[in-house]
């Protein structure tokens, strides 16, 4: 039973803490600092709109299958809402609501002119054929096309969706509303996508890891890094950090943990992943192989980067986490109770709403390019991304030093302050 509950939420001292409750906790800590309470706190936290729809598709083998799709639009005061689409069996309204609220604070922390949203379908995409995923996407668009659009709500890829899904989404949406590629981001580069979008989240994670460790006085060559997850984000972060001379001693994916105390050969691992039919490290023999969950608990590691799932560091395993620096590449990897314990121990955490904001930042660049019918070079995308991430990091770092709070609370303080200001200017509290 406990295992089943774990799959749907996060265990907190015997109580089930759902995803939205966990993200609300971090919001509440910052709201206390800002003395925001009562109806205003509720207005900032409450989702603007939540939509749940039936998604029915014809199966290749004959017959039909039914799924539930969601779109939660959390906040629109700073601009059109923005957030990914997740296809995963555990997608439910609570998870989407939590991720939508994180998008509001994330776009505000990096100061993009957007609000926050998220969507998804409770489905295991690995159980569907490519044509079935296309039909699923088109059926979902048929249900929600009226509430999304370039000036309303702009989806993007997330777990279980990729540039192909974005291309189908756009094509179906345009059947109703006409040509407008800026309805969605993360598209294939030759279909109005942006160069550098795929690497953007991992690159942002890597560049902020570089910046923080430098500030804390570590030299890259002497900094050992462990990365949980070797998917889009984990692999690009590993590539960036390896090229910046960091020693990546461990990476993991669902096939296990790959470990070399002298530093893994990252180009070899990337090559292996590229040639594996499911993009895994399974079968790689160039290093020691450890059980899956050992990565988080490695002793001789200066930086830990969770880049796979939410809720992986809890009050049950926090005592075994030894890294003095954690960079949250995944959304919500640290449970509130564990976060408090890490803060007490002086562990520095770059929070998700800052660390993984590189993806939405380059999504914004894609949207801008689509609206201007003008293409940027990869160099320009990287330069502007680095500038945006550096600026956001500096703001959060300075606020955390000034107010003597964690970087997470500082990031929330900045995000909430910007959203509150926009809401006030729009007349919310007049
Ligand atoms: P992905 O599906 O490409 O990769 C996920 C990786 O995690 C895979 O290598 C998978 O094998 C591995 N994994 C799954 N369960 C694991 C486990 N128990 N232990 C170790 N590894 C495990 O997904 P992604 O796009 O890289 O996203 C990863 C995280 O980053 C998610 O939390 C996502 O919400 C977040 N994120 C992604 C982006 C983006 O642009 N892709 C942007 C912001 C945040």
Give a verbal description of the structure.
The protein is globular, with a radius of gyration of 21 Å. With 430 residues, the chain is α/β, with parallel strands linked by helices. It has helices spanning 2-8, 19-33, 38-45, 93-109, 130-144, 163-177, 197-215, 232-243, 266-275, 336-344, 352-355, 358-372, 378-403, 407-425; strands at 10-12, 15-17, 49-58, 64-75, 81-88, 115-122, 153-157, 224-228, 247-253, 256-259, 288-290, 303-306, 325-327, 348-350. Among the domains are: 47-180, Rossmann fold; 200-350, 3-Layer(aba) Sandwich (Rossmann fold).
Briefly say what this structure is.
By secondary structure, this protein is an alpha/beta fold. The protein has helices at residues 2-8, 19-33, 38-45, 93-109, 130-144, 163-177, 197-215, 232-243, 266-275, 336-344, 352-355, 358-372, 378-403, 407-425; strands spanning 10-12, 15-17, 49-58, 64-75, 81-88, 115-122, 153-157, 224-228, 247-253, 256-259, 288-290, 303-306, 325-327, 348-350.
């Amino acid at each position: 039973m406990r295992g089943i509950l774990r799959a749907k939420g996060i265990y907190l001292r015997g109580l089930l803490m759902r995803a939205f409750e966990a993200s609300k906790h971090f919001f509440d800590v910052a709201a206390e600092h800002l003395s925001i309470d009562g109806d205003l706190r509720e207005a900032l936290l409450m989702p603007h709109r939540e939509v749940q729809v039936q998604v029915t598709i014809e199966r290749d083998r004959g017959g039909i299958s039914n799924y539930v799709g969601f779109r939660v639009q959390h906040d629109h005061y700073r601009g059109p809402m923005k957030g990914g689409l997740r296809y995963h069996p555990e997608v439910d309204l609570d998870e989407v609501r939590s991720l939508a609220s994180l998008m509001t604070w994330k776009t505000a922390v990096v100061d993009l002119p957007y609000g926050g949203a998220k969507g998804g379908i409770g489905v295991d995409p690995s159980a569907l054929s490519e044509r079935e995923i296309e039909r699923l996407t088109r059926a979902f668009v048929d249900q929600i096309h009226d509430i999304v659009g370039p000036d309303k709500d702009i989806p993007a890829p997330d777990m279980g969706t990729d540039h192909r899904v974005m291309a189908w989404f756009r094509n179906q949406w345009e059947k109703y509303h006409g040509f407008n590629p800026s309805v969605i981001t993360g598209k294939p580069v030759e279909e109005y996508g942006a160069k550098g979008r795929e690497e953007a989240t991992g690159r942002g994670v890597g560049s902020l890891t570089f910046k923080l460790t430098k500030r804390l006085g570590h030299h890259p060559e002497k900094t050992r890094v462990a990365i949980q997850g070797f998917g889009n984000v984990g692999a690009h972060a590993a590539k960036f950090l390896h090229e910046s001379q960091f020693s990546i001693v461990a990476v993991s994916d669902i096939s296990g943990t790959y470990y070399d105390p002298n530093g893994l050969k990252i180009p070899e691992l990337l090559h292996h992943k590229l040639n594996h039919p499911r993009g895994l490290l399974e079968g790689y023999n160039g290093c020691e192989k450890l059980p899956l969950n050992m990565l988080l608990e490695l002793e001789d590691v200066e930086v830990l980067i969770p880049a796979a799932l939410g809720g992986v560091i809890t009050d049950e395993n926090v005592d075994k986490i030894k890294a003095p620096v954690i960079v949250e590449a995944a959304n919500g990897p640290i449970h509130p109770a564990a976060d408090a314990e890490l803060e007490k121990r002086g562990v520095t955490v770059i929070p998700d709403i800052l660390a993984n904001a590189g993806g939405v930042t380059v999504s914004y660049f894609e949207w801008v390019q689509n609206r201007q019918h003008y293409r940027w070079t990869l160099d320009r995308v990287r330069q502007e991304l680095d500038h945006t991430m550096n600026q956001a990091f500096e703001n959060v770092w300075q606020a955390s030093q000034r107010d003597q709070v964690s970087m997470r609370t500082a990031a929330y303080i900045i995000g909430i302050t910007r959203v509150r200001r926009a809401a006030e200017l729009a007349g919310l509290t007049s």
